[in-house]
Design a protein that fits this description.
Elements: H1 2-16, E1 47-48, E2 51-52, E3 58-62, H2 75-78, E4 85-87, E5 99-101, E6 112-116, E7 119-120, E8 140-146, H3 151-154, E9 160-166, E10 176-184, E11 188-199, E12 202-213, E13 222-234, E14 239-254, H4 260-265, E15 275-291, E16 296-313, E17 327-349, E18 352-374, E19 386-407, E20 412-436, E21 442-469, E22 473-484, E23 498-500, E24 507-520, E25 524-545, E26 552-574, H5 575-578, E27 586-601, E28 619-629, E29 632-641, E30 644-645, E31 661-662, E32 665-676, E33 679-686, E34 694-698, E35 705-708, E36 713-721
Parallel strand pairs: 6-9, 23-26
Antiparallel strand pairs: 1-2, 3-8, 4-5, 6-7, 8-9, 10-11, 10-36, 11-12, 12-13, 13-14, 14-15, 15-16, 16-17, 17-18, 18-19, 19-20, 20-21, 21-22, 22-24, 24-25, 25-26, 26-27, 27-28, 28-29, 29-32, 30-31, 32-33, 33-36, 34-35
Length: 722
């Protein structure tokens, strides 16, 4: 039955592509409730507030148009029309976002510059760019995505830029209350309540959010609490000042990883009962928008983070039982603050509008990470009983950037840019080095103190171009240099399954896009992109064997140079209009299809040369049908991912399951939505055919080994807006 769905979807796309098409470019689209409704994923405008997006591959998700399991932040549904994304799905309750693209690891979105309302939300945007916090999608108005060419305006990440734009205070807004109550399989309970109001020149938007569940697997319970407060003071028609605070806390029990044999026998079994993970995230921001004149705008963002994450459990390989005793404990605390200031100037050359944006960024991060042993009990006791390492990672980043949109004609534009980066990172601390013989006896135990300093500065260049043809389609292309610093977690971690090359160094390279996009009379919407990523000294993982204990492990190192070619396409068809059927309803079909060829090149290790880059499936497909009639809508979606390796050695199997192949899989999701007066009702089934699959092999938390994805599950939601 599942393969029948795939055949129908692929054959439909081939038939649809046989039609001759003319396209009309749009920058942002919204699905309405009549036959003239627009289709397709949105795109950012060439100039938006204090940013330039001309000539770049941009994507925009309007959450009001998404028919998905929002209570569980179901990523494969929410990002269904974003091309080429590789998604990890082993997180119970959708607490953490894990997406990557174009051969980049999905691990906590660490290869994207991830923001909320334009400011950083990661632990440390430079030294530890992992996002333990994801805003509840029910609070998000839209998600903005820019691929690798975002490095000049937003910082050095090969993946690009993701911004969660939350609902905002509205000027002169009558009090509006939204309440969403959700439930689902495995004890899921979710409540989200928000208020948007204004008094005189002050407007406020705030929400409270609580979610709990038992998880698909045993020992997978989670509890999450969060809140957000955003107030804006409209001083006058030129100046407004905003203050925001976001709080998120969750505690989750983690069932650990499985071996391949255990997964094949019973995917929802659990091997660990004593693994826990805790996150406490606190975000602050002050945003000032000042229209100095009709052609000159100033945007100032002050932001900060106070946060903690604690992981507790058994890091032994999944083929070894938990026989009790002290548990491994890693504690991290983050204190970061920064400022990003942008100035936009609009002017004319030969009666054509031009736009210059320039600015700077100052960022100070302070990360403290300690590792040792925790209690030998089974509860979530995060007190450390014995310390093995303790490090302080201070970091400073100063950046200057400028880009200019030159409209050469009314159809053709160029956008050159430059970014200067100063990066200073340090590591100061100590760790206990223990060596054992083959009988596991300790033969060496010493406390080692070390200091590391790494200062670098460099410039990145980029160029984008855009050509509109009779307002029917856009051709775009861009080139951008890029850079990625080694993370703090790459400097020191104690894990029997995972080691760090002490000579690890930063990676650099460039990205290139060439694409066509447009929309023809709201019949067909498309975005077709050819891309290339080139890396020098790409950081990756290889399989090695401990010379003393003869135990295999994964090592993180500069594997070699690498390059990734690919083709990404998202096409959506308004079927009723294509067939000239005059219905008041709308029936659409979309196909999101990507081909990726990612290889290691110029390697000194012949066993690595020509291997696939890890976490780079050759084929990624999402496709589905949507139906909408007045206040009712439904959606069915198929998600397919081909095989992918987990490390550069391209090993297909291991007894301990920490490396090996991730097998291809296909998942079907079904959802419904209906609104009546002020009420809304949503329901659906995720993983309709109960596919047993996994998307990740972990080396550490949430537990080494295969992390299974959820089986079939149901959800429902009742919401009320006053």
């Amino acid at each position: 039955m599942k393969f029948l769905f795939l055949i129908i979807i692929l054959s439909t796309s081939i038939f649809a592509n046989q039609k001759d098409t003319v396209v009309y470019l749009i920058n942002e689209v919204n699905i309405e409730s009549n036959s003239d409704s627009k289709i397709g994923v949105g795109r950012l405008l060439p100039v938006e507030k204090s940013a330039l997006y001309s000539g770049r591959k941009t994507e925009l998700i309007n959450l009001s148009n998404v028919n998905a399991n929002l209570a569980n932040n179901n990523t494969r549904q929410i990002f269904s029309k974003i091309a080429g994304l590789n998604i990890w799905e082993g997180d119970a309750g959708g607490l953490q976002l894990a997406i990557g693209g174009r051969g980049l690891s999905p691990h906590r979105v660490s290869n994207f510059n991830t923001r909320q309302n334009g400011y950083d939300i990661a632990a440390d945007a430079l030294g530890y760019p992992e996002s333990y916090y994801t805003p509840p999608i029910e609070a998000v108005d839209r998600v903005e995505i820019v691929r690798g060419a975002a490095s000049l305006q937003y910082g050095t990440q090969f993946g690009g830029f993701i911004n969660f734009k939350l609902q905002e205070p509205e000027f002169n807004q009558k009090t509006k209350v939204v309440s969403r109550q959700s439930g689902g399989s495995f004890g899921l309970v979710n409540t989200f309540n928000s208020v948007n109001t204004s008094i005189d020149d002050v407007s406020v938007y705030s929400y409270l959010h609580f979610k709990r569940g038992d998880g698909w697997r045993e020992f997978s319970t989670f509890n999450q609490f969060g809140g957000h407060f955003n107030t804006k003071y409209y001083v006058n028609d030129k100046l407004n000042i905003g203050f925001e605070f976001t709080k998120m806390y969750y505690l989750t029990r983690q069932a650990g990883g499985l071996t391949d044999t255990e997964f094949q026998r019973n995917p929802n079994s659990a091997t660990r009962a004593r693994n826990w993970f805790e996150v406490d995230w606190n975000l602050f921001s002050n945003i000032i928008d000042y229209d100095i004149s009709s052609t000159l705008k100033l945007n100032i963002r002050n932001f900060g983070l106070i946060a903690e994450r604690n992981s507790l459990g058994v890091l032994e390989r999944p083929d070894r039982m938990d026989i009790g005793g002290d548990r491994d404990l890693i504690k991290g605390s983050y204190l970061n603050y920064g400022n990003e200031t942008r100035l936009m100037k609009k002017y004319e050359i030969a009666s054509l509008p031009q736009t210059l944006i320039t600015g700077f960024r100052v960022y100070q991060g302070r990360t403290n990470q300690s590792q040792g042993l925790g209690s030998n009990a089974s509860d979530a006791d995060f007190n450390m009983t014995s310390q093995k390492s303790n490090y302080l990672y201070p970091g400073t980043n100063v950046a200057l950037f400028a880009e200019n949109l030159f409209n050469i004609t009314d159809k053709f534009s160029l956008t050159p840019g430059i970014r200067y980066e100063y990066i200073d990172t340090k590591a100061e601390g100590n760790f206990i080095k223990i060596e054992r013989d083959q009988a596991n006896n300790i033969i060496k135990n010493e406390n080692i103190f070390e200091k590391r300093y790494n200062t670098r500065n460099f410039a990145l260049l980029g160029l984008g171009l855009s050509y509109f043809h009779d307002k029917t389609f856009e051709f775009y292309s861009n080139f951008s240099q890029n850079y990625r610093a080694i993370n703090f977690s790459d400097m020191r971690i104690l894990n029997p399954n995972f080691k760090i090359d002490p000579n690890l160094k930063d990676e650099n390279g460039w990205t290139y896009d060439l694409g066509f996009r447009g929309n023809w009379d709201n019949l067909i919407d498309y975005d077709l992109t050819f891309f290339m990523l080139s890396y020098y000294d790409k950081i990756g993982e290889v399989v090695k064997v401990d010379s003393a204990l003869f135990i295999p492990y994964r090592e993180r190192t500069n594997v070699s140079d690498a390059r990734t070619f690919g083709f990404e396409s998202v096409v959506e068809f308004n079927i009723f209009r294509l067939l000239n059927l005059d219905y008041s309803s709308m029936f659409t079909y979309f196909i999101n299809f990507s081909l990726i060829d990612a290889k290691y090149i110029n390697s000194k290790d012949k066993s690595i040369e020509g291997n696939n880059i890890e976490l780079s499936p050759n084929v990624i497909l999402k496709s589905g049908f949507s139906y909408k009639l007045k206040s009712f809508s439904s959606n069915i979606q198929v998600s397919y991912m081909s095989d992918q390796f987990t490390e550069a050695s391209n090993t297909r199997h291991s007894n301990n399951a920490i490396y090996g192949i991730i097998n291809e899989f296909m998942v079907v999701d079904l959802s419904f939505k209906y609104s009546y007066s002020s009420f809304g009702f949503e329901t659906g089934v995720n993983n309709l055919f109960n596919e047993m699959y996994f998307t990740r092999r972990a080396t550490g938390y949430p537990g080494p080994g295969i992390i299974p994805s959820d089986g079939i599950n149901f959800y429902f939601n009742i919401n009320y807006a006053l």
